[in-house]
Amino acid sequence: MPETSLLLQAKAIDKRFPGVHALEAVDFDLKPGEVHVLLGENGAGKSTLMKIFSGTIPKDGGRLLIQDQEVDFESPHHARALGIGMVYQELSLIPTLSVAENVFLGRFPKRSSGTVHWNRLFADAETLFEGFDVSIDPQIRVRELGMAERQLVEIAKALSMNAQILLLDEP
Fold first, then answer.
1. Which domain holds residue 148?
2. Backbone phi, psi, residue 81, to 5°
3. Where in this chain does the record put each ABC transporter domain (predicted)?
4. pTM above 0.85, yes or no
């Protein structure tokens, strides 16, 4: 049986903070279609590892490969450009904006005149939610949603950026 190539591979990842060796020689492999759950006590390094994978913080040592290409993320934007989406413990939604505005913030579809194409924005958000069988009105303000629905909006936001790898920090 042929070896499946890895979407993500971490080799001997190391991370130190003042007074703490948070990660020491951590290895991790992710193949297409796999789901992994990291379990451990508070302070075990789970969130630190995901922040390295998402470009939020740099690693101090080791190698990180995306589809067999070594990378050193310069920023979360760089990680997103390489197909990594992250949903953090702390939600980053703006309560006074609609669901659709939050999902596509900074990436609104525009008309030729340069104004926002609101109908397309709401339709795109609705299509995205239908894709994973969730019924959330894209025009509703985020402040009107429960916590579980807000987390789904965060996930939709990450997936709307074509994430091939989705990292969830205590969803």
1. 99-159
2. -65, -25
3. 23-171
4. no
